[in-house]
Amino acid sequence: MTEQTQGKFKGKHAVITGGGRGIGAAIADALAAEGAKLTLLGRNEEVLKAKAETLPAALPLSCDVTDQAAVEAVIAQAREAHGPVDILVNNAGAAHPAPFMKTSSEQLQSMLDVNLMGPWYCIQAVLPEMQERDSGRIVNIASTAALIGYKYVTAYAAAKHAVQGMTRSLALELAGRNITINSVCPGFTETDIAFDAIENIMSKTGRSREEAIAELAKHNPQKRFIQPEEVASAVLWLCEDINRSMTGQAISVAGGEVM
Ligand code: NDP
């Protein structure tokens, strides 16, 4: 692993969950370009390794973020390799659309496990060292579904709203230290999650691919899909040292869908 010698985050250790693809991969590219040493977490080892090979100093560690013991073990490994964690980006997440009455308690629990408990466990694993050093940046990739409702994703929206409740409350608990926690809330972004939503609309309604894309894109006043790099840009801004007054916030990257 060859470390980048320049950049805003030179020498900082950033952990990105779900860093192998989609929005997480774009965040990894952006942080690496600014000199950060990275740890990429996710379940699929091959995908993580392939992504890490494209970056100057990235450690791929496979881990299911819903397993607290596994999270603690990989964070210990990451610390061993790259030193204490300066930046945690809780990006791993999943959405399973279903009407409310067809959402089982197991499906609700799985949405809470990956979207809320995963970030919770990761924060608990890195926070003691951030507190010891009075320094840290935590960014949760929530969703516009953390701020407003959408039909047929009640369990996902409940979990993402809970992430924002955690973000606001923890921001207050950490306010006496230089540790900030914020959410970035993307609208529909061009990744596998959006592709799954397109397939879902096509199979449920018989609409064409173009019609399904238009159906999703209409949520965004700019009538377009957001690109992962746009989400990454907001994450990096929140991680800058200068932005220590930004805490407990939810920043929508959604073309004006939420304001
Ligand atoms: P992708 O499906 O492309 O990526 C999801 C990532 O999360 C993958 O890297 C996946 O890796 C990882 N992941 C999922 N479950 C787990 C788990 N249990 N443990 C560890 N890693 C896991 O989706 P996006 O990039 O779009 O999603 C990233 C985040 O952005 C999510 O939190 C999502 O809710 C949020 N978001 C996305 C929007 C969109 O339209 N795309 C809109 C609003 C929010 P692996 O499968 O290898 O475990």
TrEMBL record:
CDD domains: SDR_c
InterPro entries registered for this protein in UniProt: KR_dom (IPR057326), NAD(P)-bd_dom_sf (IPR036291), Sc_DH/Rdtase_CS (IPR020904), SDR (IPR050259), SDR_fam (IPR002347)
GO biological process: monocarboxylic acid metabolic process
Alphabetized PROSITE patterns for the sequence: ADH_SHORT
Domain Ketoreductase: 12-178
Pfam family, one: adh_short_C2
Family in the record: Belongs to the short-chain dehydrogenases/reductases (SDR) family.
Protein name: SDR family oxidoreductase
Organism: Emcibacter nanhaiensis
Lineage of source species: Bacteria, Pseudomonadati, Pseudomonadota, Alphaproteobacteria, Emcibacterales
